[in-house]
Amino acid sequence: MALILSQLFISLILSLFFSLTLLPHATTSKANSSSEYSITSIFNVTAANHKTSQILSFKPFHNQEEFPQTFSSSSSFKLKLYPAASLYNTHHQHKNYYSLDLNASLNPGITTGTSNFLVQIGVGGPPQKFYMIFDLQTDFTWLQCQPCIKCYDQPDSIFDPSQSSSYTLLSCETKHCNLLPNSSCSDDGYCRYNITYKDGTNTEGVLINETVSFESSGWVDRVSLGCSNKNQGPFVGSDGTFGLGRGSLSFPSRINASSMSYCLVESKDGYSSSTLEFNSPPCSGSVKAKLLQNPKAENLYYVGLKGIKVGGEKIDVPNSTFTIDPYGNGGMIVSSSSLITMLENDTYNVVRDAFVAKTQHLERLKAFLQFDTCYNLSSNNTVELPILEFEVNDGKSWLLPKESYLYAVDKNGTFCFAFAPSKGSFSILGTLQQYGTRVTFDLVNSFVYLHTLCCN
Question: Domain Peptidase A1 spans what residues (predicted)?
């Protein structure tokens, strides 16, 4: 058991900093289209193992960037996203927020949502800075507040309302209070909430309006969010949850954002150039897919894909894989909590088999945890892998980032196919497969834009 936990710990750390090096056979000016590209790529095993060794010796830091004390508002906002492990201060005694369960299935709309990434915001006037969970699966934004009844250990000082001139309690008669599940009135007429997620985690507090600031790019007044003073759950390592779902309580809805865009990027020493943006246009040359909505989970983002190709060949997958039926089954959820992509069981089997058929030249190993297809690349400097892509529309495809095909589970050259079967009747687009891609949600016209060369 100790060995398994040790291996799992290593794989989780690698998920936050893993950056493989692939040398393509041929280049193309159409990075997001399948019209001109090589159907294989050369995987640099030596470089990948060297990177893994660097990761395992990584010394985390705790970012000390300060917000300016004065702000000017703007029509668009840009924030940095930080890999969770990079913000862990080794002098702190609490655990880091990279303890996600790779074997857990995503329950649409009813889990707290863990994340590989945190976002830094300022709350109050003057702003107090906090690292919040980057969460696409939930709507409600909340942070821990004084006075605490039951608070977990967090990296930063807990929000102190007495130090903010913009702090306002909301009445239980307000529209926002009525939108909250299990809301109630306090004795003095203010809105209280008690939210319990399906995994048993819980947060309680009062609903407030506050000023939320975005590093140096601006601020928004009177944003409704939760001021929690009683919490129970695996929130350790963050100061709260930044709810970015599609529901009416989510942060994008509260600021009337026309678009939301993010890019997850791995970089050396844990410092990330990952960003989260609101009201920014999609990158020129992006491939466009429909942003679908599930009638049974309206707060989730579903990307409307058309098919899958492995090594240039279209794979025959069930028609239900990427469509959503009236009962809420099917479709692919864009996730910030699942590390790897999970495909509906039948779809996963045919995609995996197609990948295996095109990697017969590689030495297979036994399964590792949820990974059923693993390879021994310890004696290889480079190997050839088939290109993987998702079909979008009009014959165009999104070529998955090459570093997302295989996943290193140790530093000895063991790599596994970085996909797994879903535990439910839906698929999940994991963060590993999103690395290096600018994902833009057009919240007005319901489209998703994907671009692999637009993260800087």
Answer: 117-451
